[in-house]
Specification:
Length: 303
């Protein structure tokens, strides 16, 4: 195939990939509300819990000796389904509403904030493009493989048939671990709010949180590609299972560096990055040994 034909095919596949991305972004745009709720659940769950603890702390402080009794209010028992609302229950509810009106929360609660009228649209557009890219990754990889594989021999294509599925699976595992890690990271970061004055509050910029979310997902997805890199090195003859087992201390170094380079830089996130990397390193020894077995069989068939 001539150079111009290669360039024409490359342009065609790039345009297809961009169309995939556009379709994925449009689809994510129309389902923004549930997607955004899923992305921000680690933050919102922590904020809701800390806001509840904040209110309970104010009520508890008011009930201490010397506290103003007028600032203490015991909520009535919830009304059960089918229960008749008596005059006493109605009066309790009225008193509760009146108490809330006369005793607003002195400290601002944690929540989200936008700095400009245009930021709501930009955040929605940013999230839509991100989700669209994630949804279309398999199609983009397929287009890339279709462009590269014709230039490879039959033996050179075999590793790709193994490495690409493993790579996609490990990437999904990394993203899942990163999402679970965010719950611990948010709790750890927001716990430092108690170190400041009583009127300190968090008003989170959604755009900053989305960028932090992207960095965490990307970091874990890339880190979980360690077995793929080592298996690829084994196919090329650069890595051996005996060498990995002999130099196992390098696995500890890699895990420690992975933890230190975590975007969150908090202890729970670093630990949840380091331990999987350590497991992946030692698990890669067995995967590399499998690759060596496959290479030995192919070599025996070639004879």
């Amino acid at each position: 195939m001539e150079l111009t034909a290669h360039l024409q095919e490359l342009r065609t596949r790039i345009m297809r990939s961009l169309m995939y991305l556009l379709c994925g972004a449009v689809l994510a745009y129309f389902f923004f509300t549930p997607i955004y709720g899923f992305l921000t659940k680690p933050l919102q769950t922590t904020i809701t819990r800390l806001n509840k603890d904040h209110i309970n702390k104010q009520v508890t402080d008011a009930s201490r000796p010397g506290g103003a009794k007028d600032n203490l209010f015991i909520l009535p028992d919830p009304i059960k389904p089918g229960e008749v609302v008596t005059a006493e229950k109605f009066n309790q509810l009225r008193n509760a509403v009146d108490w809330v009106r006369r005793h607003p929360i002195s400290t601002p609660l944690m929540g989200t904030i936008f700095h400009g009228f245009h930021e709501m649209f930009l955040v929605q557009l940013e999230v839509s493009i991100l989700i669209g890219f994630i949804l279309t990754i398999p199609l983009v990889i397929w287009e890339l493989a279709q462009f590269i594989t014709p230039a490879l021999t039959h033996d050179e294509r075999k590793p790709l048939r193994v490495l690409i599925p493993i790579s996609v699976f490990l990437m999904l595992c990394g993203v899942t671990v990163a999402y679970c890690t965010l719950f611990f990271a948010m709790a750890w970061f927001l716990s430092f709010l108690d170190s400041f004055s009583a009127d300190a509050a968090l008003m989170q910029d959604p755009s900053d949180y989305v960028m932090f979310f992207i960095k965490m997902m990307a970091a874990f997805a890339l880190a979980f590609q360690l077995p793929v890199v080592l298996m690829g090195g084994s196919y090329l003859g650069l890595v051996t299972s005996k060498g990995l087992a002999k130099n196992w201390r390098w696995g500890i170094v890699i895990a420690a560096l992975g933890g230190l380079l975590t975007p969150a830089n908090d202890l729970p996130s670093m630990a949840l990055m380091a331990f999987p990397l350590l497991i992946l390193y030692f698990g890669s020894i067995f995967l590399v040994k499998m690759v060596e077995g496959w290479k030995a069989k192919e070599k025996a068939k070639g004879r």
